[in-house]
Design brief:
154 residues; alpha+beta; 2 domains; globular
Length: 154
């Protein structure tokens, strides 16, 4: 049984034990050579970020759909972005947050606005659907500001 098999159960622990065990695994993997050393270094970098409670702050759009249920931040959160204009289109802070969460690039929103199919929405908003990118864009009918961006058909 390999090192990962022996220590695998410890990696799945939680709380203080997980932090302690992560340090044990990190120390063991850092002592390896060759391919094991690369794995050790990668794990050590991840573990150091995990034990500090962090990693890097999100800085922009990734443009990835992710996997069903895994690619989108589902937690209730405060608005991270302020309203802004991109390529002549006004976006609310919420729309920018949802674009980041859902991996939708501003160019996809532009394409939806120019080539999408209108669909019914609540009063005061306009909905456009892009079947190629499977994206819905909801805008304020009066101001034209993008209110939110959603993946999936209406």
């Amino acid at each position: 049984m390999g090192l990962v098999g022996i220590l695998g159960g410890r990696i799945m622990s939680s709380g203080v034990r997980a932090v302690r065990d992560t340090k044990i695994v990190t120390a063991a993997l850092e002592g390896l050579s060759g391919a094991g050393a690369k794995l050790g270094n990668a794990f050590a970098g991840w573990a150091k970020g995990a034990t500090r409670g962090g990693g890097r702050e999100a800085t922009g759009f990734l443009g990835s759909k992710g996997k069903a249920g895994l690619g989108e931040l589902k937690n209730l959160q405060q608005i991270r972005n302020t309203p802004t204009t991109i390529n002549g289109t006004s976006y609310s802070g919420h729309a920018l947050d949802q674009m980041q969460n859902r991996g939708v690039m501003p160019s996809v929103v532009q394409n939806t606005l120019h080539h999408g199919t209108p669909f019914p929405t609540r009063a005061g908003t306009t909905g456009m659907f892009d079947s190629v990118n499977n994206v819905r864009v909801i805008s304020n009918t009066e101001t034209g500001q993008i209110v939110t961006v959603i993946r999936g058909a209406p």
